[in-house]
Write a sequence for this structure.
């Protein structure tokens, strides 16, 4: 079938209009996405600045919406929704370097690598917190016989504590890697 010259030109014009319209739609979507990302970045920066201004000895009280701006999806799930990571498939279960583990939400120092040990569970485990008031245990929650532990500064879920740990404490603080941020000791 042979098309007339006019019909061919009309089809070519329609193809170009479709391509131009599609390009225009994609450009609009990209601009809207950039504007949204910029406002999210600005809000995230504002909340981080607010967090950094709070002294470590003071409580952090953010809304869940504020936490969403500064935590990754996995961190939010674990820290704010009380989720649990899979064993043997997390960042720190097999870390043996010297350093300090901080709360991934608020930066509160929680555990020293000196108290870390291999519990065989697949989660980072510690026999004591870095300080007596670094973590809080909630008597209302249990997980396989353990008691929920939260960051004493911001209330974020960290993991659970069990009474089957090594001496001298006899405790096993079984933590989620997503709830922690490890900072390696200088010189390691």
């Amino acid at each position: 079938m042979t098309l007339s010259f006019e019909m061919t030109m009309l089809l070519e014009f329609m193809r170009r209009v479709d391509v131009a319209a599609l390009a225009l739609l994609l450009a609009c979507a990209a601009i809207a996405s950039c504007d949204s990302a910029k406002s999210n970045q600005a809000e995230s920066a504002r909340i981080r600045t607010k967090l950094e201004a709070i002294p470590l000895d003071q409580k952090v009280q953010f809304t869940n919406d504020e936490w969403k701006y500064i935590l990754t999806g996995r961190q939010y799930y674990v820290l704010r929704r009380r989720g649990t990571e899979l064993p043997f498939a997390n960042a720190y279960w097999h870390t043996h370097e010297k350093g300090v583990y901080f709360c991934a939400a608020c930066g509160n120092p929680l555990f020293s690598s000196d108290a870390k040990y291999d519990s065989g569970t697949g989660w980072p485990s510690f026999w004591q917190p870095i300080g007596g008031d670094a973590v809080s245990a909630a008597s209302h929650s249990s997980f396989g016989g353990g008691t929920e532990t939260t960051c004493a500064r911001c209330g974020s879920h960290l993991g659970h504590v069990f009474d089957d740990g090594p001496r001298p404490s006899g405790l096993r603080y079984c933590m989620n890697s997503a709830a922690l941020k490890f900072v390696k000791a200088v010189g390691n």
